[in-house]
Amino acid sequence: MSMNNQNEKLIPENLEGIKGQAGTPKDISRLQRDIEKLKQDNESLRQQIEQVKREQVEYLQNVSHQLVAPLNAMKWHIENLTAGRIGLERAKKVLRSIYSQATIAVHLAKNFQLMSNLESDHTLAALREPLQYVNLCQLMVNLADDFQPQGWDKGLRISVVDYPLDKAPQVLVIKPLISQVFSNIIENALKYSKTGSTITIGGTYNSQNDTVSVDTVNEGIPLPDKDIERIFTRGYRSLEARNLYPAGTGFGMYIAKKIVDIHEGTITARADKSSRIVFTVTLHVKKLQGKTRQRDAKDSSSCR
Question: Whose CB has fewer CB within 10 Å in the chain, the N or C terminal residue?
Answer without folding.
Answer: N
